[in-house]
Amino acid sequence: MTDKTDRAENEIDSGRRDFIGVAAGMTAAVVAPGVLLHTVAAAPRSEPVTSDVRWGLLVDTAKCADGCSACVEACNDENGLNLQTPPEGEPDRKWDAQKAVWIRKVKLQDNQTGRVTNLPMMCQHCEHPPCVDVCPTGASFKRADGIVMVDRHLCIGCRYCMMACPYKARSFIHQDTTDQLTSVPRGKGCVESCNLCVHRRDYGEASTACVDACAAEGHHAIVFGDLKDPNSAINQKLKEIPSRQIREDLQLNTGVRYSGV
Amino acid sequence: MKRIVYREWRISPQRYWSILGVLAAVIGIGALAFGYMEHQGHWVTGMNNSVVWGMPHVFAVLLIISASGALNIASIGTVFQKPIYKPLGRLSGLLAVAMLMGGLLVLVTDLGRPERLIVAMTTYNFSSIFAWNIFLYTGFMAITIAYLWTMADRQGGPFNRPVGILALVWRLALTTGTGSIFGFIVARQAFDAAILGPMFVAMSFAYGLAVFLLVLMFAFTEEGRPIGPLMFRRLKNLLALFVAIVLYFTLIYHLTNLYVEENAGFESWLLLKGGIYTFLFWVGWVLIGGLAPLGILYHPELSKEPRWIAAACALVIAGGFATMYVVIIGSQAFPIQMFPGQTVLESGFFDGIDGRAAPYWPTIPEVLLGLGGVGVAMLITAVGVRVLQFMPESLADNVVPPCEETLGRAEPESAPA
Amino acid sequence: MAKVLMRASLVAVSLVWVLAAQTVLAAEVKRYVVEGSRAAELDSCVEPTERMRRMHFEFIKHQRISTVHEGIRGTKYSLAGCVECHISYEEQQPQPIDRPDQFCGACHAYAAVDLNCFDCHASVPNGGGLDAEAQAAHRAAGVEKLVQSGRNGEGH
User: Fold this and answer.
1) What is the annotated signal peptide range for this record (chain B) (predicted)?
2) Domain ranges of chain C
3) At what angle do helices B229-259 and B196-223 cross, to 10 degrees?
4) Which residues of chain B make contact with A174, given a CB cutoff of 8 A?
5) Which residues of chain A neighbour C80 with C-beta distances below 8 Å?
6) Residue A256 backbone phi and psi in degrees, to 5
7) Over the stretch A177-227, which tens digit does the pLDDT of each residue have?
8) Residue ranges of the domains in chain A?
9) Of A12-21, A39-48, C117-126, where does the model show the most confidence?
10) pTM assigned to the model
11) What's the CATH fold of domain A55-259?
12) Which end of chain A is more exposed for a tag (fewer CB within 10 A), N or C?
């Protein structure tokens, strides 16, 4: 096991390289091997994530369109949530309350002014996450790069994190799962939530599924980026437009910011 | 006053085994419910992503706080040195261990991955109150067993008081910890209140004593052991006091919430328009669990009748159940206020559209699982009193130690015949 | 009497257990690599076969910590890698690897070791909703961008 840390590229023989290609580019198996090897040789992360970056999102609610759910569909697609099927014999109403939802659209109306706002809600990736504080086993944790997620190997399914989350961002998997995606393992009895497309982060991709989908619709309401990089797109935008955190009173310093709420 | 003699529970074998049989059946059904829930997943329960803790937690928390409350009787005897409570100490300790076991079992069997319990036992996150509670619960069990030993064994005598004090401190920490599981949750309006800790302590006193009294009365009448009016008077007065304290905390809790405008929405929902939760609050928590037993226990005539005292205990427990339902489930059903001053028109995840509460309706398996836990607690108690000397032979007035309340006063009913 | 019986049966059970374990070790080592899978064409896995047989869970277990908590995906121990290489196809359909006639499932059934990786992990190579080409293009674009900006995704 000493060679667990043995990650030097040059030592890897052809068999190993093949295996690595397999390991990393698990989703791109059909692509020509040359492209595959090239892509993964550069992409998958081989060093631990550090706190030099902090991933975050900025939602410009002015651009978030009423009736559009592109981000939700993209998230479901990316993370295999659209493969969930209601257990046999379960009524729809109950299933709606029990199925996993990582991102949702919320439509608000101001009680005084009547102004209507649309926005996506998801895990806010707090700097001081209550879900991490309450988790008895440490399954709920914050990665060095600011992503709050669940280690499903440790989660015992007590659901205390769901009690503690002020954003109702987490879901419990109530039924057996089949057809999971390779990049998003998920199974009965554990809690899960938005992880800022962590597999995309580890393969060095530029953004998240929801951001891409929103851009593809032409709305560009969500910006993804590194909150610690002063030159990142998200920081430029944060300097430009007023924004706030939801439930600022809790002082959780969320990684997801909203403009126009 | 005579020497207190403890004796095993010697009801007829037929009677005893039929009691055990019924309890075993209840536990068996609970076990089946557990298997069903774990095999199918939690979709067969009423719990969902909004109301994440349901009926099993109502049972579990009720059992756990009753457990720490039951130990109170022993504490009053040893720590506060009221001799009249001393003969009750052993049964009180046994009940505490039994109910804690039952409660924990329900809690553990409701986990999404109960087979990973070993993870919970080996991987700790010490900023979690849950993780602390694992130590509080196991420690409570160990201390109570040690406490029982000091009460029952001659060699343990000298340690009786120190262990008793430790047990008292520990049980206070335990109930505060249980209350804090809810009280430290800033996310939910109903929970974000430090008063939940002490309120849970008060509730544990009341529910624990009510359970203790019921068990004591049942066990004694089954075998024809006497309980004197003096003992009844003491215990029912104590119960009335505890019930009144619970009502007091309830009042303060809601007054504080009403005063803070932020929580006005929650209060008007719970107190007026919360449907089942409003009903359970007023009828269950306040009336059945509070005012009705108080009325019985302070009634000049009824309060002398053992039957009525038993009825009052049952009411307190039923009220406690309603209380837990409102505290645990009602507080989750009320939508989290993420956007103050705004109304949610549409949401993909039950964010309280137009302020509506989240759906929850318990299903049969979760109720059976909870009852299974109660069964376990009762089975441990029944076996304990049968095989070991937990209960005094008699609690008649001429046997129990003098009651300092009536010392110096000539009280006709407490005078030995 | 009951106690003696209990003890005797405990001893018996443990004896049987020890013997059974011995037989597993002594028995002719079967080969569970499924014909037609990519693994069948290779001389050995990422470690010599003997080592893999004994240690594969240790490897995966360590890997899971560094992958989940540190984001390291570029190492040779990977459950997705196991599945990718050991999967076999019938009529071009990948067969779930935990099935009792497949690589993981068969050996675990033989050794009577509970296999629950695939409660959560995909038991067949399973990409995502996007088609593979789009994903590859995506990935390539992402990497390109990172290369241009002089960052390699390691958080400088």
Assistant:
1) none
2) 31-125, 128-156
3) 160
4) 41-43, 47-48
5) 22-23, 26, 182-183
6) -110, 125
7) 988 999 999 999 999 999 999 999 999 899 999 999 999 999 999 999 999
8) 2-42, 55-259
9) C117-126
10) 0.85
11) Alpha-Beta Plaits (3.30.70)
12) N
